[in-house]
Amino acid sequence: MSKIKSLIRKTATPANTNNPILDNIANSDAPINMTANTPIEQTRWNGWGNININKKVSAHGAKLIKSHIGKTKKLNSVSLAQVLKTVPKSRLPTAITELKTVSIDQEDRLRHARGQSFPDWIAMHGGDFEVFPDGVAFPESTADVEILLKLASEHDLIVIPFGGGTSVAGHINPQKGSRPILTVAMSKMAQLIDLDNESQIATFGAGTQGPAVEAQLDTHGYRLGHYPQSWELSTLGGWIAARSSGQQSLGYGRIEQMFAGGTLVTPQGTLNIADFPASAAGPDLREMMMGTEGRAGIFTEVKMRVQHQPEEELFKVAFMPNWEVGKEVLRQAVQKNIRLSMLRLSNAVETDAHLHLGTTPSQFLAISTYLKARGLSSDKVMLTYGVSGDKAQNKLALTEFNKLLKQQGSVTGKITDIMGSVWAHGRFKFPYLRGTLWEKGIMVDTFETATNWNHIDEQMQQMQEAVQNALADEGEEVMAFTHISHVYKQGASLYTTYFFRAAQDHASTLSRWQKIKHAASSSLANGTATISHQHGVGRDHAPYLAAEKGKLGIQVTSDMLKSLDPEQRMNPGVLIED
Ligand SMILES: Cc1cc2nc3c(=O)[nH]c(=O)nc-3n(C[C@H](O)[C@H](O)[C@H](O)COP(=O)(O)OP(=O)(O)OC[C@H]3O[C@@H](n4cnc5c(N)ncnc54)[C@H](O)[C@@H]3O)c2cc1C
């Protein structure tokens, strides 16, 4: 036992490489920039994240995936120079190009043409971008954005608001059409503008990325607490416009609870959304504008509800005998109001995969032997949880939660506590794995939803089966596993990760993904689960939205957007199919 502990402790330090849990910081070349927006030229033009950061996958983890999907072969990737040659001449009129905020530089246009969806990765690696924006504007103030939208109206432009470009649902991709396209990148509006200590409201430029939000608040002793896995690069404006949810939403709330109000520049004028603590004055404009995905206008300044920095923050892991009992612990904890900041439950396949992907064979053996000796079988599931607050409050929450864990036969201890810390240290490095797997010909994507507790099992099964069988016509296996990522009293979100083999070229690999995506999306169209809990709608989910909102619901949403944007110049085709 002490040997196992020391093995895990050793591997949990940044100086070492392999770790027992997938998300760790050891396999990287540089730390994530925790202070300011990352300049776009320091990010990968055809993949995730900072060019100086990589994450290795253990040979033994890759072997596990290949044991499901078969032998893989890497897809070719084109070079930046090759793609730059395909960027056409800008169609923007000189009245726009002569603005000091606007660039028609080819690399700027290329770097703002795609997000992080699977089709985006195929386009970027295959070199077939299809369409580029005709220019990219970098406004520095609300007044700049107002001028841009006025000129866009005068010159009949399409306008695409761009936050961090981390969309995984095709939110920011320009489409073919006769109107010139101006992408409005918010990266220069990244400052804390005002902090009302009494009301705990911080006003930020909407283009502020996660680390820059927290670093600027931290100097005043505050925190927002919104940590999507894309935190390194995604922005306040993108979170609000796509209704994001962070890993600690249980403690800090979803973006809906954090966004108090702000300024939205629309083609019909500037809308100031008041930041009342609550209001009974009719339909809530704040709610109505969240989730508009760039179709209503551009958020320029946003008022966020912030909290004091917690005195203590802890992340822990427990192993449970099986999914059923793990799920019961989550449900009871949230329904009993135990003040945890996060709860996540991996199913048995995901638990096994995580343990493989983050370990060497000897580490895996050591952990498996330890868990087996404590009575857990291959049905075991991994539960990750956290507390964030003052020490007394955390202690109380952990005491109550430990009681629940014990009642349900959990395995916890120093080793699992270390695993929790390792997870916390490395949680924003996980997206880097996608590039590593891509290089091996292993394609990976995710799919997520939310449903009530009484539908969780049925929905997870439907989603996984749909994904696993989607390539049966080609005789291809898809490996899939799921976790519950966010919990509510009423239900929870389900997040499925799947792996499949690259085909012989980019087009047929995309066609494989399309089959999987369609099968997974259709498995939700029964009215009990949403098409997205956190990634938003974009273009990829738009065809499935009517199944959830109904014809009248789509009409109401569409009419509301048209009232702000009658010419449909703001990001058309996103959210609602036009
Ligand atoms: C690796 C990875 C992990 C992820 N994990 C999570 C997660 O844990 N939780 C989660 O919620 N999401 C997650 N996402 C999805 C994505 O990060 C979110 O949708 C996020 O909210 C997008 O923010 P962004 O700033 O990158 O916006 P973008 O991708 O640039 O834009 C998204 C949408 O918002 C609009 N928009 C952006 N800024 C503005 C603005 N200022 N005004 C008006 N409209 C605007 C755009 O037009 C577009 O429609 C993940 C994505 C990746 C790649």
Spell out the key features of this protein:
578 residues, Vanillyl-alcohol Oxidase, Chain A, domain 3, Uridine Diphospho-n-acetylenolpyruvylglucosamine Reductase, domain 3, GMP Synthetase, Chain A, domain 3, 6-stranded antiparallel beta sheet, 5-stranded antiparallel beta sheet, 18% strand, binds flavin-adenine dinucleotide
Report on this model:
There is one protein chain. The radius of gyration is 23 Å and the shape is globular. Helices cover 36% and strands 18% of the residues. Among the domains are: 146 residues, Vanillyl-alcohol Oxidase, Chain A, domain 3 (3-Layer(aba) Sandwich); 109 residues, Uridine Diphospho-n-acetylenolpyruvylglucosamine Reductase, domain 3, CATH 3.30.465.10; 113 residues, GMP Synthetase, Chain A, domain 3 (2-Layer Sandwich), CATH 3.30.300.330. Strands 12-14-13-16-17-15 form a 6-stranded antiparallel beta sheet, with helices on both faces. A 5-stranded antiparallel beta sheet has the order 5-6-10-8-9. It has a 4-stranded mixed beta sheet with strand order 1-2-4-3. The N terminus is likely disordered. With 578 residues, it is α+β, with helices and mostly antiparallel strands. It is built from 21 helices and 17 strands. The structure holds flavin-adenine dinucleotide. It comes from Psychrobacter glacincola. Keywords: FAD, Flavoprotein. This is FAD-binding oxidoreductase. InterPro entries: Alkyl-DHAP_Synthase, FAD-bd_oxidored_4_C, FAD-bd_PCMH, FAD-bd_PCMH-like_sf, FAD-bd_PCMH_sub2, FAD-linked_Oxase-like_C, Oxid_FAD_bind_N. Belongs to the FAD-binding oxidoreductase/transferase type 4 family.
